[in-house]
Each structure stands twice: as C-alpha cells, then as structure tokens.
C-alpha cells in the first residue's frame, strides 16, 4: 500500500512491527537488528521522517540516504527526549537556532532538513483530509491533562520509546 503516493518502510522493534504494517507500511526494519543500515541494497531512501529524535538517529538517516534526500523530524535536534527541560525562553531560542542552522545548511548540502510541526491553522481540514485518505493514527492511551502525575508518566513513556501510538491529552474537568 502507498501512503499519499509514497512507499513507507517503518523502523521499529519486532514487537511493534504488526502495528506498523497494519497501518500501511510495506515493510519494517528491526531497529534492534541494525534499523536503516539493515535495509536491502536495492532500496533507496528519499525521505526519512524521524519520530524518535536525537543526533544518532539524524546521523544514521543522513547516511542511509547517502547524504541526499530529505530528513524530516517531529522531535527536532537535541537529545531526542520530549520534555527534557528547555521550557524557558532561552532554551526555546536555542532550539530554534539549532533548527534554523540545520535548515540553512540543508540549502547548501545534499540533505534537506525540516522540523515538522502541526500548522496553527487548518486543523479540521487536515483531519478531514487524513480521514478521506484513510490514514490511521493508533492511540496508545489517554492522559488526563490536569493530572500532574499522569503527565509526568506520559512524558517518561514517550522518552522510553515504548508507546504503541499517540498519547491523547484529555480534559478531565467534566
């Protein structure tokens, strides 16, 4: 199956492979057995979308694409942890500078770099388009937004890379 006209190969642990395949990936590379480096030589990669983060992931992705193509990350540069500090203005500016630096460098090197983010506008239109295209989003669990312990546990779960889909924040005030 093609997703938006693109053949998708997932990289995950063997235990997550059935979920990744059921969501449309054509194949899965086991991250514990070499990940991107273990792909067959006849498969060339043009775009890698990173949902884990970290410099090691970015370096491996660039190498797997032969220092060409397009590296897209939803995590951004850094340690690869969600909620790993950096909540002040200084840390936000530093993160923005890292993203801008990589994007600028990508204009002159073989690998384009993009920090993906949900657009501020058009949310309902994007969701409608995803539904029309039959794109799936697996929900791992719901997290109560106003429960500090639940939020901390959710951040720890994301950082452990043990989720089997999205964590959905719910408003539990009703």
Blueprint of the fold:
Blueprint: E1 2-3, E2 6-7, E3 9-12, H1 17-22, E4 27-30, E5 47-50, H2 55-64, E6 70-73, H3 89-106, E7 112-115, H4 123-132, E8 139-144, H5 148-160, E9 166-170
Descriptive overview:
With 174 residues, this protein is α/β, with parallel strands linked by helices. Helices cover 33% and strands 20% of the residues. The protein contains 5 helices and 9 strands; from the N terminus they run βββαββαβαβαβαβ. The strands form 4 sheets. Strands 5-6-7 form a 3-stranded parallel β-sheet. Strands 1-2 form a two-stranded antiparallel sheet. The chain is globular. It starts with a strand and ends with a strand. The relative contact order is 0.11. The model has no long low-confidence stretch (mean pLDDT 78).
Low-confidence stretches: none
Broad structural category = alpha/beta
Mean pLDDT: 78
As a percent range, the share of helical residues equals 25-40%
Radius of gyration: 17 Å
Please write the string of helix (H) and strand (E) elements: EEEHEEHEHEHEHE
Strand residue content: 15-25%
Number of strands: 9
General shape: globular
C-alpha termini separation: 41 Å
Q: Tell me the number of helical segments per DSSP (H or I, 4 or more residues long).
A: 5
Main-sheet strand order equals 5-6-7
Largest sheet: 3 strands, parallel
């Amino acid at each position: 199956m093609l997703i938006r006209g693109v053949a998708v190969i997932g990289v995950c642990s063997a235990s997550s492979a059935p979920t990744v395949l059921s969501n449309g990936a054509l194949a899965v590379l086991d991250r514990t057995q070499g990940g991107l480096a273990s792909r067959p030589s006849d498969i060339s990669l043009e775009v890698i979308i990173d949902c884990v983060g970290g410099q090691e992931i970015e370096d491996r992705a660039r190498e797997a694409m032969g220092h060409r193509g397009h590296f897209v990350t939803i995590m951004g540069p850094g340690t690869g942890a969600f909620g790993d500090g950096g909540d002040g203005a200084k840390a936000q500016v530093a993160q923005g500078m890292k993203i801008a630096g990589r994007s600028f460098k990508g204009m002159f090197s073989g690998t384009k770099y993009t920090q993906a983010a949900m657009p501020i506008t058009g949310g309902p239109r994007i969701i409608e388009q995803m539904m029309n295209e039959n794109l799936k989003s697996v929900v791992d669990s719901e997290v109560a937004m106003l429960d500090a312990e639940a939020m901390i546990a959710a951040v720890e779960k994301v950082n452990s890379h043990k989720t089997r889909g999205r964590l959905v924040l719910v408003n539990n005030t009703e």
